[in-house]
Amino acid sequence: MSDLGALLTAIVTPFADTPGLSGRDQAPVDEAAFVRLHKHVIELGSDGVVACGTTGEASTLSDVEHLRVIELAVQEKPAGTTVVAGVGSNVTAHACELTEKATELGVDAVLSVTPYYNRPNRRGIVAHYTEVAKATDKPIILYNIPFRTGTDMPNDLLAELAQIDGIVAVKQSNDANIAPIDGLDLYAGNDDTILRTLEAGGIGAISVASHLVGHDIKRMLDHPEERGEVHARLAPLFAALGVTTNPSPIKAALSMQGHLSDVFRLPIVPCDDHEAQVVRGALAALDLLETGARA
Q1: What value does the mean pLDDT take over residues 119-142?
Q2: CATH number of the domain at 7-223, out of 3.40.1180.10, 3.20.20.70, 2.40.40.10, 3.40.50.11550?
């Protein structure tokens, strides 16, 4: 198992419910709710968190806010747990700057997404990660999520990137690419592929559902004989958390449990009534509405 842990929660960034905001006004980060949520996911069995990733709505944060959330995660992390900082950008200089500053804040590793929108070719991707690797002495987890970025990193390219000093793992969010990669630890990037990833030799998961069912997911990681049964039981929850764009469903779920306000920054919006009912139904089926967590 990686020193970073097998189960990492891609933690959400709570925003404060601020009366009077409308349109392009942005609610502030709710730091107290973030600290409470960080503690909660560790209590549910996570080995650490990924702060300011996709689920953390990093793309809507200013750099000051982004680094402050990372700083909070580092300051508040319980002993024996890890903090991985999402520091990706589609501008290499910006990615390097965020990587340098997160390293200075004391993170245990960084998560670096493929440059999005500008869709660099293979040589551009290699050049990008070569520069990012120079910006830190911490382990780097690659993040392959073509659904969001528009660019896939095929497995032979991932193996090439593994030759760059410091690149140690990949969060694989392209279901078609789930396979061992020479030189890289493999993390499931989607909850519904945790079972497949583990069966392919993966070491763990960077999970969203672990906000809610961390103990169950940890059982999948620690007890191979229970994986199929746990996966089947959690599959409806995994599907419900994908009923619309992440992180709207997980924030709805956490709001239903009383952990945070269901507040976003445009263009992300809360679940509509139908989507919220899907989420509520999945929580109720697992007795998660009142208890907030399974033992």
Answers
A1: 98
A2: 3.20.20.70
